[in-house]
Amino acid sequence: MSPELASLLRILAAVGLMLMNGVILIYMLRRVLGRLHQRLGPVHVGPQGLLQTPMDVLKLLTKEDITPTNVDKALYFIAPAAVFTPSLMAYAAIPFSPTWMVTDLDTGLLYTLVVMSLVSMGLLMAGWASANKWSLIGGMRSVGQHIAYEIPLLLSVLPVVMYVGTLNLSSIVEAQSGTWLGILPQWFITNPLFWPAFIIFIVSALIKVNQTPFDMSEAESELVAGFATEYSSMKFGLFFLSEFSNSFIVSALAVTLFFGGWTLPFVPDEVLAPIAPVVFMLKVYVGIFVLMWIRGTLPRVRMDHLMQFAWKILIPAVLTWILVFGFIIKLFDLGRPVG
Amino acid sequence: MPQDYLTLGMFVIVGLLFTAAAVTASNLLSPSAPSAAKSATYECGSKPIGLPWVQFRVGYYVYALLFLAFDIETVFLFPWALAFGLMGMEVLWAMTIFVIILDIGLVYAWKEGAFEWR
After folding, report:
1. Cα-to-chain-centroid distance, residue A29
2. Domain coordinates of chain B in residue numbers?
3. Which of A107, A113, A155, A207 would best serve as a mutation to test chain B binding (most B beta carbons within 10 A)?
4. Does A102 contact chain B (CB < 8 Å)?
């Protein structure tokens, strides 16, 4: 098999994974939010409501595609692609197991963060092209919050990079195998030195997911549906799919950077090798559950509070922490470069 | 390494093709009965007044300028962090000075009220 064909098959597998994730996560979100709101969620279509989401996909596919007369035609049609393509590309460098990944990029971490930030450009495009006031406000808010939290997000992963000296995601996972004194897994989350970075990472990554408490760009009780107001049928479906895919990517990044990726403590390598992708997916889904839990618990924050929190607290905090972390690493000679 | 970037290029193409295919499939499957009321701009039932492409608040622009400055700082910090383990204490002092200079800018913007949302 030629390498090009192999990559193409892997990319198609990523597309399949993205679609599967979308269907499963929508069902999971409805059930989890239902529980958090003390109601049932979907239960009638199929056993336990399992067929509800496939039916919804069919419905979305057969809905009339309305194009309002005032829209900027070219941008209006490009915007769904500009949102969907980067979220698909974010799957390229995620290591599902030692061998399961689309490409083993040496710049994997930086690459994933970069393509994730491209999504907000598509959202602004959608907001602007829709010729709708709600949409435009949604698009502008989206860009405002994405650029404010882009910097803490990029900086919060730096302690990990300083510690292991590589941007390659599978090397970062390998650096976390083994245990501390045979008790705790040697994941970065079990090391208190990484806790500040982890907290800042999670707060800024929540912005990327566009969910409550940070769903300023959609804010259904303020802006109808924000940037997606004028989109219907499959174009809306693509925005939706991209959003759910982003929560998967954010959770996958958190698992890779802080929770040891596909590694498990106390399990010998030959046992772990065949089940590594399962371990990884389970960890990611636990992470997504936590994201949904946050979504179901916290109220939406105010736009000005959101922006001020980033610039006045998060950015100074993360810059200070990087330097303090650097001094601790150098003084006690703690780094473990893998490259 | 070139193989990796070829794969990323293929990703872009597959993404665009998938979008086109999904939208086309839905257009083939769905009914189409446009009407003037249906394709009007949606503003919760009231008639929209004017186009929305108006001047927008300058606050976003100030944030965008600040973002540029700090994003470039991030660009400097990434290679620094990569090489951090290989170098001695002096790179840390150099970066401390660099970050302090940038933070003076942040404090200045703060004092000028760039972060107030009015």
Report:
1. 15
2. 2-29+57-111
3. A155
4. yes
Judged on CB neighbours under 10 Å (0-12, 13-18, 19+), B107 is: exposed
User: Which of A28-32, A133-137, B42-46 shows the lowest per-residue confidence on average (mean pLDDT)?
Assistant: B42-46
pLDDT, tens digit, 9 for 90 and up, residues A193-220: 888 999 999 888 888 777 767 776 666 6
Q: What is the ipTM of this complex?
A: 0.81
- What is the residue type of A175? A
- HEC secondary structure over chain B: CHHHHHHHHHHHHHHHHHHHHHHHHHHHHCCCCCCCCCCCCCCCCCCCCCCCCCCCCCHHHHHHHHHHHHHHHHHHHHHHHHHHHHCCHHHHHHHHHHHHHHHHHHHHHHHCCCCCCC
Contact between residue A60 and residue A237 where contact means Cβ atoms under 8 Å apart: yes
Contact B52 A136 (CB under 8 A): yes
**Nearest one of A296, A295, A282 to A251, comparing CA atoms:** A282
Q: How far apart are CA B47 and CA B52, in angstroms?
A: 13
* Chain A residue closest in CA terms to B15: A85
- Say whether A144 and B32 touch across the interface (CB within 8 A): no
Q: Nearest Cα to A19, choosing from A60, A77, A69, A49?
A: A60
Count the neighbouring beta carbons within 10 Å of the beta carbon of residue B29.
14
Contact by Cβ (8 Å): A95, A173? yes
Q: To the nearest whole angstrom, how far is the Cα of A271 from the nearest Cα of chain B? A: 30
Give dist(CA A190, CA A176) in Å, integer: 10
Comparing CB atoms, the residue among B22, B74, B92 nearest residue A234 is: B22
Q: Rounded distance, CA A94 to CA A86, Å?
A: 14
Local confidence band at A286 (pLDDT 50, 70, 90 cut-offs):
very high
